[in-house]
From TrEMBL:
UniProt lineage: Bacteria, Pseudomonadati, Bacteroidota, Flavobacteriia, Flavobacteriales
Descriptive protein name: D-lactate dehydrogenase (cytochrome)
Keyword DNA-binding in annotation: no
One Pfam assignment: FAD-oxidase_C
Residues in coiled coil: none
Highest taxon in the source lineage: Bacteria
GO terms (BP aspect): lactate catabolic process
Record domain FAD-binding PCMH-type: where: 39-267
GO molecular function annotation: D-lactate dehydrogenase (cytochrome) activity; D-lactate dehydrogenase (NAD+) activity; FAD binding; iron-sulfur cluster binding
Amino acid sequence: MLAQQYKNFQEELAFYVDHKRIITNPLQLLAYGTDASFYRLIPKIVVQVHNEEEAIATIHTAYKNNVALTYRAAGTSLSGQAVTDSVLMVATHRWKDYEILNNGLQARFQPGIIGGRANIILAPYGRKIGPDPGSINAAMIGGIAANNASGMCCGTAQNSYNTIADIRIIFYDGTVLNTADSDSKKAFEAKHPEIIKGIIQLRDDIATDSILYERIKRKFKIKNTTGYSLNAFVDFQDPYDIIKHIMIGSEGTLAFISDITYNTVINYKRKACTLMIFETIELACQAVPYLKQSPVAAVELLDRNSIKSIENEPLAPEYFKSLPETACILLVEAQADDEEEMNNKQKAIRLAVAPIPTYKPFEFTSEPQQYAFNWKARNGLLPTTGALRKTGTTCIIEDVAFPVEKLADACIAMKSLFAKLGYTDAVLFGHALEGNLHLVFSQDFSTQHEIDRYAKMMDGLVDIVVNQFNGSLKAEHGTGRNMAPFVEKEWGTQAYQAMLRIKAIFDPNNLVNPGVIINTNPHIHLENLKPSPATNEIVDKCIECGFCESHCVAEGLTLSPRQRIVIGREIARLENTLEDANRLKQMLADATYYSDETCATDGLCALACPVKIDTGKYIKDIRHQKLSIKAHKDAEYFVENIDRVTAMGRTGLKLLNFSRRLFGDKLMYKTATSVRKLSNNKLPQWNIAMPTATQTRITKTIANPNQERKVVYYPSCINRTMGKSKDYLKEDVDLISKTTELLVRAGFTIIYPENLDNMCCGMPFSSKGYKEEGFTKSSSLEEALLKASNNGQIPVLFDMSPCFYTFYEAHKDGALKMYDPIEFMQDFVMDHLEVKNPRKEINVYPVCSVKKIGLEGKLLELTKRCAEKVNYINSNCCGFAGDRGFTHPELNKHGNRHLQEQLIQNSHDGFSTSRTCEIGLSEFGGINFKSIFYLIDEVTK
């Protein structure tokens, strides 16, 4: 019967939602069904909804077929509130609309906008959203509101509950309510008078129950997200005010948030922070009440184990490693509009904390690097501490709050509990100003003994928080599944009965995210535990937090980095247990496309990951493991004959260009696409930006001799193969010739490495898993460059950023002084060229390697010398990924789906530093992208 319900749901929904987005493939179900918590439930169906109409259809169809439905945004939830074994509705892609109201004083956001992106949008108005969770650069507005996430600076005064202006929600049967629209409220009341009546009755019942009324007021004097926001019934009288506030923190169990309007808060111009070191955690906690009376914006507590997790970071102070084992840090933030106000606030903070001695003197800093490190280290503490765990164990995070005056005693009690149960790696950190602490520890769930130990830990924690200190079992991470059994314990029977009534009012059939917040199973927190088998040392430290997802070009097309790791772990589990051979076989088959072939291996995920996990390296390692002896032997031919390969490439490009000129672009594209389909997509895809062969051949080792300045120029094998595209100017020459012209004009003697035609940085091999072959080519190039540069005395210029990055990563500790085209032109060339014809405005696209090597700032400096206005395109990887733009063009298309809307209106070109990326950018941007060398040449002629 149940199976039939899901079948009916799926068939009916296909009339409203593209069947490709009604997912039943086991691999995708597992991937999408995973969130940042330590629970695993695999949905039966995943529905990707792209707009409100689709969401309404999905919700109504689920209600009609009596099918349970869970809503999901980014899936950074830590307590199991975004997983289900029924239907999962994902509202992330295309839910990006927003509206700025009242000159930035308010802003309306759809649920799929990342919190950090919302703040970027509001920045020109000097405003931001109130909530500032540590996951703000990954968490989306829908989840931030649904979980009432707070964070470092917002406390309770600026969380979603206290900054919501209005909300648009979809109820269990598909009915829409917009609290900002009087007509919508009238229509809703006419359709669902029982909901309004139920809310008014509960409000009045709470008001007449003085014990419950006072308990609610007292419980919300500190942070509290355990259960529902009962304070809505105390703080407001109007039922619609109650509705919009009860939705905050309801964790998707009452309705779906289609959009939310926030009252924004001031984003101060000046910010400074300091690290106050105390000899013990007790002293640090004693300082908090003093700091609370001072003009601080945030006070973050980091215990000694927290500090250990970040002490080896490059920007970490050296003294971190020598602090006493009892030490504790308070990260204190001050914010102001001007320098005078900032100085006054810092003086007031120093004076306030003076009664409590610090272990060493402290200074405030606004220096960008150190300031950014301090906060990045704090925001990433969950993943970085989780990465310290033993492979195969799970990272657990709990989130509690105490009255500030009881914080020190509560810390001592919790550390005593850790010691008693053997959690020697347990870490304490959190928002001390609000008495809000996060405790992180590793847990082995592979044996019943360990599960029992975890149960004792939870029981002990509940006793400390509820019985000893009258605190909150959940302060900002939401109740989810892991605290659902203890909601009544914390709140008492009367309050819990009120919560049951809330659930029944809004979800009478218990179909909206059932099992979350309200759950009658006293052991639900010990069930459906996520396995974490050893998979690959590159990714074994991943805690599946999801921070990486917004940086992945394949996310939304196939899998994100987190999802690739999830699939890898499931394959490892099945291989270890041998429990389901058919499932393993299917997983391996599907992973070939979803996980391997559509991974750009660009490594941008590592930039967002607090523990620097590069899923691209993981995928390359998988590719390496799959290679046969024959494949390696075939690769050896290419290693030894790069000159022949590039020659064949030039011949092929000439033939393609001849065909294009003969048949025209449209017929050429149609024919090439048809031939590719006939080959089962084994042949590369031709596109209109495909270049012809380069006309430039380097036959000598020195050009423009006897100059004072010298450079070794290494033209990449790509640029030794590919020349101009059809949209290049007639007077343009190939990139190698253009680079040579610029260097000569700037007064450089140019030295080329010997045997250049057979040189390669190794990337074409290493990116496909041929590690040994890639290293062989890379090492040969190093020898040639050392010889040409007089053992590193002369700088080496690479003309493509990806080639430079690949070579640099392999040989950065060697004698060579090597440079990306951006850095070399900015630091060595531009001062010897006069900018005579600057552009008014230009489009500039930073490729992945530029971001990874940290050259975005230099790229801006360089391009600002060439134009009055630089349109710096803010994007992930373009998805061309070396050759993926030819072999898997859907990845390139997906990566550039928002490119055109970011370009300067009526522009005709753009600039970058990777020839292959420029092909894809040209095709999907609709303008001609080419190397930045052409821009420099144009403005300095």
